[in-house]
Amino acid sequence: MQRCGWCVGDTLYEDYHDNEWGVPVYDDATIFEFLILETFQAGLSWITILRKRENFRKAFDNFDYKKIAKYNTSKYDSLLLDEGIIRNKLKIKATISNAQNFIKIQEEHGSFSKYIWSFVDGKPIQNKVENYKEAPANTAISDALSKDLKKRGFKFVGSTVMYAHMQATGMVNDHEVNCFRYNQVKSP
């Protein structure tokens, strides 16, 4: 079975690649989970975040954005002491304010999913990546998404972070064309 080169050799990476990466996600809760994880990944490797994913899930109330939006100073302080997550003050604060802004976008657009998928006209972009090293780090679409999110008060949502989010949530299919998942996640 041929997989994208970036995941080969690590069972956690391979499982994530085989079952999640690049699969279109339209559920707000899952989109928010990936937004949190991508926020914390900024400047770090994705495998580091995957290894701590369950710790993040526990620390951040199962990624429940409604609860996270209401976190107080006491909860913030307890997160700073949680050795199971990335204890970055700015990223933790950003997660709380991003949850608040996430809800505002839901209220404005009916769902965050409708908002974010509007950047790709509601359907995944089908790239033809031969080698994962050739995939872009950002695009004009991720630039526009990043700019709009920042305008709405989001933090740690640079264009590269947002492109990684688009890849993870299937807004773009960047599986290598020879990868067994490329056609499985390809939209008609």
Automatic annotation (TrEMBL):
<feature type="binding site">
    <location>
        <position position="179"/>
    </location>
    <ligand>
        <name>Zn(2+)</name>
    </ligand>
</feature>
<dbReference type="InterPro" id="IPR052891">
    <property type="entry name" value="DNA-3mA_glycosylase"/>
</dbReference>
<dbReference type="GO" id="GO:0006284">
    <property type="term" value="P:base-excision repair"/>
</dbReference>
<keyword id="KW-0862">Zinc</keyword>
<dbReference type="InterPro" id="IPR011257">
    <property type="entry name" value="DNA_glycosylase"/>
</dbReference>
<protein>
    <recommendedName>
        <fullName>DNA-3-methyladenine glycosylase I</fullName>
        <ecNumber>3.2.2.20</ecNumber>
    </recommendedName>
</protein>
<dbReference type="GO" id="GO:0008725">
    <property type="term" value="F:DNA-3-methyladenine glycosylase activity"/>
</dbReference>
<feature type="binding site">
    <location>
        <position position="175"/>
    </location>
    <ligand>
        <name>Zn(2+)</name>
    </ligand>
</feature>
<keyword id="KW-0227">DNA damage</keyword>
<dbReference type="InterPro" id="IPR004597">
    <property type="entry name" value="Tag"/>
</dbReference>
<dbReference type="InterPro" id="IPR005019">
    <property type="entry name" value="Adenine_glyco"/>
</dbReference>
<comment type="function">
    <text>Hydrolysis of the deoxyribose N-glycosidic bond to excise 3-methyladenine from the damaged DNA polymer formed by alkylation lesions.</text>
</comment>
<keyword id="KW-0234">DNA repair</keyword>
<keyword id="KW-0479">Metal-binding</keyword>
<dbReference type="Pfam" id="PF03352">
    <property type="entry name" value="Adenine_glyco"/>
</dbReference>
<feature type="binding site">
    <location>
        <position position="17"/>
    </location>
    <ligand>
        <name>Zn(2+)</name>
    </ligand>
</feature>
<feature type="binding site">
    <location>
        <position position="4"/>
    </location>
    <ligand>
        <name>Zn(2+)</name>
    </ligand>
</feature>
<keyword id="KW-0378">Hydrolase</keyword>
<dbReference type="GO" id="GO:0046872">
    <property type="term" value="F:metal ion binding"/>
</dbReference>
